[in-house]
Amino acid sequence: MPVRIQLAVPSLPVRLFETAAPSISLGRGAGNMLMMDNPHVSTHHGRIDVTGSGVTFTDLGSTNGSMILRADQRLPAPGGGPAVPLKVGDKVVMGDSSEPVVATLLDDGKGGAVHPSKDDAPVVTSVASRPVDPDAGGTVVARFSVENIAVLPEGLSRDARVATAVFDLARSAATEDLTSVVDRAASTLFTLCAPASHLFLGVLEADKNDFRRTLYRARGRTGDQPGWRVSRALVARVITRREACLVSDAAVEMASSESVALSKIRSAITVPLWRGGEVWGILSVDTREGGVPFTERDLELVTVLASLVTLALVNADIMGKLRARGEALEGENRYLQDALRRAGRFTEIIGKSPAMQGVFEQLTKVARTDATVLIEGETGTGKELVARALHNQSPRKDRIFLGTNCGSLTDTLLESELFGHVRGAFTGATQDKKGLFTIADGGTIFLDEIGETSPAMQQRLLRVLQESEVRPVGATRSHKVTVRVISATNRDLEAEVKEGRFREDLLYRLKVVPVRLPPLRERGDDIALLAEHFLAHYSGELERGSLHFSSDAMSQLRNYPWPGNIRELQNEMQRVAIQADPDQEITAKDLSAKVTGAARLVPQVPDSEKGSLKELLDAVEAQILRDRLSATGNNVTRAAETLGLTREGLHKKLKRFGLR
Fold first, then answer.
1. Cβ–Cβ < 8 Å for 450, 489
2. What is the maximum alpha-carbon separation in the chain?
3. What's the rounded Cα separation, in Å, for the pair 591 and 553?
4. Phi/psi at 149 (nearest 5 deg)?
5. Is pLDDT above 90 for 607?
């Protein structure tokens, strides 16, 4: 006869356990035959052994100890042994003395037995052919939490085929999708469990009233095999009682179940799929008419498979959420990139002058390469804008673009900014900091005003460009980086090299491809394009309606040399828009005095010029023609319009002064 033990765990229903196994392990861990959900019980607390001479209990060195209660006697159970003989009715007290876990020996397998009172309302645990608790809709055999990854019971672990199959399934559960894992689990089950003929996986809806996903597998068939019914009584029992069920003889134990009768189920095992304290679904296995009943070993195998399927289920849920989040982030990224493009249109490169067309052609050629680029040009010509355009058109466009002004930081701060530092490298370095070269790895870094750097900094930059390695301040080791470097300067670095203020070898590294940005005074019609663009932007931003220029205002803008280049023009348009009324026409009087100042309208005659008044006026007129041709990119038609002349009239004057 099997041994029967009653287990009472605080805050949980009383359970009965019945088995013919010679050794019964007790503890909090999932691998125990009698698992006790109590924090005061050790993972492997104790063991009950059944031998020919009787039943004994051994404390396995538990933290909080054990004691045997026999009538009015208290018998110590020393930690780590020796074994203490048990008699029917003895209570093994484990864990916290105020709220202990109690295992009572009810039947020693030799005829001696006591029975629990009905007041205990036990949940019966058994592998008997007939149910001890027939109203429960099946015979409960074990509680199992898959929060702990499956631990093979000792009996299964001795079987090399089982251990190998479970190992392979565990590996797939961590990497493959749920359907593939269920296929593997079904294959493993049908190979190792001869009675099993059908397997069902059901993932529950949030309200636990139905399944949101089901998978059916049948022995000898591939793919999903819907059309057969899992026992709703067993499913309800597993979900409600949060217990695994083994029904040895379904025809007797579940005679009232329609699904059992229709499917001709002979024996069934139904196991909950747990995540933490929540039942996510169930795994049900059955054998049909003509099959043999499942055994306790089959239950152990299905329980282990259920834990691995749960791992795949958890992974599938996490991957689904990550996929959804990734798609959402991708959509957000596309939206933000579009928004940035829309928001940044006023800073995009605008120009149709011959000078700018040459720049565009050069940028197109170099954008798809990783060559270092040195952008040269006066202050305000848009060097950073061009650097960003190069990055956005390069293979690195999906990676980060970072920039810094080398002339705005001291040498020490610039070194830390570019290369980073380690904790304690200098006063105030309270933690490690990554430099821009490290952060921009794989992307582009823009070094503005590179001509302002010191010789020491130039040496460090040269090393980065030569070795593609960065060493943070205070560090002893370098690390590799892959960064495209674009630099800019408003200085003549060739002259700086001759004066000994800039390293020639660094200049060669930086200036693989030089790009010169022309000043605004050399860009002719671009002045009108840029002015209209900036005015439209600020009028929209400030809700000024449709602002537009009068012909005299546009003439003044074209005649002004713009020493501050595009930045100065942009600031002028912002000021004009702020002071304008809605839908106003912008006239010359709305422009700043600097732009309309009379002193600049007539070119100054050099003191070296000598001659009559007519000769001096001719010199001034010739200079005006030269300036206007330069401003319009040598466009005679446009220059004639801005001067109020016909094309033929301008040609005559140009011929007269030897300018054509």
1. yes
2. 142
3. 7
4. -60, 145
5. no
